[in-house]
Every structure is written in structure tokens, then in C-alpha cells.
Amino acid sequence: MDDLISREAIKQRFENYRGDCEEAGDMLSAQVFADCIAELADAPAVDAAPAVHGRWVWSPEYCKWICSVCAGREGECETPVCKWCGARMDGGQGDG
Questions:
Q1: φ, ψ for residue 56, nearest 5 deg
Q2: Which of 2, 20, 34, 74 is least surrounded, with the fewest CB atoms within 10 Å of its CB?
Q3: How far is CA 55 from its chain centroid?
Q4: Could you tell me if residue 2 is inside a domain?
Q5: CA gap 56, 36 in Å, rounded
Q6: Beta partners for 81?
Q7: According to DSSP H, which parts of 1-96 are helical?
């Protein structure tokens, strides 16, 4: 699977490197960074959504484990992803 990164953050880093090269008089390297910035601007983007994190919570009402994000009832707490909402069951940030 590809890593998702911030295009703007990488472009800013390359812009800083380009500026450093220009200050040092290394115009060839500065041009390489300028070309990289242009390539990043033209690179295709992926359709991605932020990851949702949750955890399995015991529900006495249903006598089952439920998703802390959508309250979908799984019946067991071993699955790493909620089959109803797709939340990652790692108890991470924003776990409802």
C-alpha cells in the first residue's frame, strides 16, 4: 500500500532546499529541486479518506462487543476492523 503524505509539506521542504542551494551558489542543485517541485505539483492524487480509529466496547444491553464509533455489534472483539463502518480497532485517536 502507498503511504499518504502531504504534497504541500514536501513541496515546502524542497523549496527550502532549493533556496539553500541558491544561497550557496549551487544553481544546478537548485534547478533539480525546482524540477522536483514541478513534478510533485503534476503528480496524480489518490482518493483517500482519513483513518477512523475505534475500539471494541462491551455492551451489557446486547451481551456483545460493539464498535465505539458506530455501535455496530460484532459479537467478538478479535477483528481488527469494524465490518460496518471500517474503523480500525486500535483504540487510537478519535475512538468515539
A1: -80, 130
A2: 2
A3: 19
A4: no
A5: 44
A6: 88
A7: 7-23, 27-42
